[in-house]
Amino acid sequence: MEVDPTPVGGARDSIVAAAFDYAPDGILLVDSLGVILAANEAACELFGYEAGTLAGRSVDELVPPASMARHTAGRQTFLASPAGTVSVGLSVTGLRRDSREIPIEMNLRACSVGGEPAAVCTVRRPWESRAAVQALRDAEELLRTAVEQTGQVVYDLNLATGRIIWAGALARVLGDSPAEAEHLHVKAWEARIHPEDRARAAQELEACITAGKPYDVEYRFQHRSGRWLRIYDHGVFLRNNKGEVYRMIGAMADVTERHGLEEQLRQAQKMESVGRLAGGVAHDFNNLLTAILGYAEIASLRASADTKLQEYVQHIRKAAERGAGLTQQLLAFARKQVIEPRVLDANVQIRGVEKLLQRLIGEDIELLVFLAPEKLHVKVDPGQLEQVLMNLAVNARDAMPDGGKLTIETAATVLTADYAAHHPGRAAGEYAQISVSDNGQGIAPEIMDKLFEPFFTTKGAGKGTGLGLATCYGIVKHAGGHIGVYSEVGQGTTFRVYLPRASEALSAAPKAEATHAKGGSESILLVEDDPGVRDLSASTLLGAGYRVTVARDGIEAQDVAAAKGPFDLLITDVVMPRMGGRAMAQALQDRQPGLKVLYVSGYTENAIVHHGVLEQGLHFLQKPFMVSALRQKVREVLDGRA
Asked: Are residues 591 and 613 in the same domain?
């Protein structure tokens, strides 16, 4: 049998030490200066410290600021009492290391250490038991886990110390590490609020505390990666029995994606408004331009001998054509054009306009073209694709006033579902990517969001309409794709156009039309509400030998058809008062099956198109038009050509 060599006194000290360490209540030995001489494991655990780390600290660290004066006076009074004096069942408030305040039941016994007054203090929570503490911890952990799963940042802020006691999901949502999230100070949080929003957020906090209402504010907050998030912050305030605010409980949510969706909605609404405006402008303005262009063409033919008059007429014609171009750009942005999409190879289309682009940008800019080795079939109106390339080239040229390089590249790319989920408005799938890059001045960050807005331009007066990029945006969206931009000031700009790849075979190239169309003797009913266009069209067709009867709208046209029909061809505007062209044409075709119809309009109002594409089998002539184009189209429809 082994004999314990420890003396009896040493054994007693060991037993006392074990009892001290493993006592269920917290035990503190405090000297006259308030320094903790010893603290058992239960005390360290109660106040949130690691075992053995309370010794040497001031007992004041365990007292909330609001209770400090009363605590100091009470400690001095008790330490002045004779040794053996006992004070039992004191109810006080303690301060944990994580800045949480907790209710405490405390018992005191005055003693001496080395001849100096001291106190032994036992502390426990009023309800404390090992099982209750563990149950509480389990409940807290369950609550934390549940809050973490919501994705919201839930926080508990001690306003007296500025310490964020707890912030669930902070690390995952805002990019902080768990350690950073656990020990975050409110000042560090405020420093990451966007400078433009910081003062407003602070003022709102003070105003809410004063008014006694919840805190509701939205601001930009910097993620650890450096990007800016939109944060919605909502909190309520807790007050003590004196009515003083000492704590704030709140929740934050990342609403960045919601803002993106709202911006998309605003953009869509803006486009819809511009579309309605464009429709009204196109209908009226194109009628005026049709008359101007038509009579200019007639005047040009009759003034062939007068060189000066010919020059004046050409100026009128060019001005009208520029006006027509602006109207078409506006319609392209608003996706109100009537288009003829075909399946084509984007590489072939770019090669076809390469020389034109070089002339457009000038000799001081080098054009580099790098095309993907595979065929990139896309379904788009070829004229509109050329318009996108030319608009982007002109934009690049203007960004390089001293010359530079313009690079056009194509590539096959795949956008994943994950990419599409993080980029609203973009669909997953296979795309043909067309990149147009320059090494010019670049674009300032503050105007990046406005680039595709109609009429927005940074160019001087008379140097830009602000419709170039807006037109590109509308055309690409109409084709089912999207367009993006990356730029750095002084480093250049890259526009990337993504068009969905088509699985169909290439469309056959359209046949060239005859330059001059012959006339005829057929009977035509012309329905047009604009008197200028009506008179011009009637005189043009009469001059070509046709028999023409006119009507001012759909209602009058039905009466005329009943009295003077049948007719070989109906030419009608689409948008008219009282009765539109499509409804009137169907009514006349019910009476006279086989009646051929040619629709003429500057804005169809979706009456004869679906998503901008002309209904199959219908004939359409876009306003404004030349009189020669009208004669040619009439002959084409009467002869049954597609």
From this structure: yes
Q: Residue 175 is part of a domain; what is its CATH number?
A: 3.30.450.20
Nearest CA to 230 among 208, 254, 210? 254
Kindly state the DSSP code that residue 450 receives in the 8-state scheme: G
Residue 37 lies in a domain: yes
Angle at CA of residue 458, ends 456 and 459, nearest 5°: 110
Question: At 156, phi and psi to the nearest 5?
Answer: -130, 110
The phi-psi region of residue 606 (left if phi > 0; otherwise alpha if psi is between -120 and 50; otherwise beta) is left
Domain CATH for 560: 3.40.50.2300
| One domain, residues 37 and 142 | no
| Distance linking the first and last C-alpha atoms of the chain | 116
AA identity, residue 470: A
Choosing from 465, 500, 535, the residue where a domain stops is 500
Closest CA to 150 of 81, 220, 18, 253: 253
Distance CA 336, CA 4 (A): 100
User: Residue 358: which CATH number?
Assistant: 3.30.565.10
Q: Which of 79, 98, 128 is the last residue of a domain?
A: 128
**Is 511 contained in some domain?**
no
Question: What is the number of residues in the chain?
Answer: 642
Residue found by looking up tokens 């296979």 in the block: 430
What whole-number distance in Å separates Cα of residue 549 and Cα of residue 50?
101
Q: What is the reported pTM?
A: 0.44
pLDDT over 70 percentage in the chain: 78
Number of domains in the chain: 5
Mean pLDDT (the chain) is 80
SS3 13: helix
Q: What DSSP string describes 527-561? A: E-S-HHHHHHHHHHHHHTT-EEEEESSHHHHHHHH
- Tell me the one-letter amino acid at 153: V
Do 532 and 625 lie in a common domain?
yes
Q: Are residues 404 and 441 in the same domain?
A: yes
Q: How far is CA 484 from the centre of its chain?
A: 12
Sign of CA dihedral 225, 231, 236, 242: positive
Full residue range of the structural domain in which residue 465 is found: 342-500
User: Does one domain contain both 349 and 492?
Assistant: yes
pLDDT of residue 321: 75
The stretch 293-307 carries a mean pLDDT of: 76
**Predicted confidence (pLDDT) per residue in 35-79, tens digit:** 999 999 889 989 999 888 999 999 999 999 888 888 888 888 888
Question: 573 with 480, same domain?
Answer: no
pLDDT of residue 159: 77
DSSP per position, 109-132: EEEEETTEEEEEEEEE-TT--HHH
Backbone angles phi, psi at 552, to 5 degrees: -90, -20
Q: Which of 542, 609, 612, 610 is nearest to 571 (CA)?
A: 542
Which H/E stretch holds residue 412?
strand 404-415
| H runs (alpha helix) in 24-164 | 41-46, 68-79, 130-150
| Rounded-to-integer distance, Cα 87 and Cα 110, Å | 9
Same domain flag for 405 and 464: yes
Helix 531-543 / helix 627-638 crossing angle, nearest 10 deg: 60
Q: Which ranges in 407-498 belong to alpha helices (H)? A: 417-422, 468-478
Q: Are residues 485 and 346 in the same domain?
A: yes
The pLDDT tens digits of the residues spanning 358-371 come to: 888 888 888 898 99
Q: Read off φ and ψ for residue 345, nearest 5 degrees.
A: -90, 115
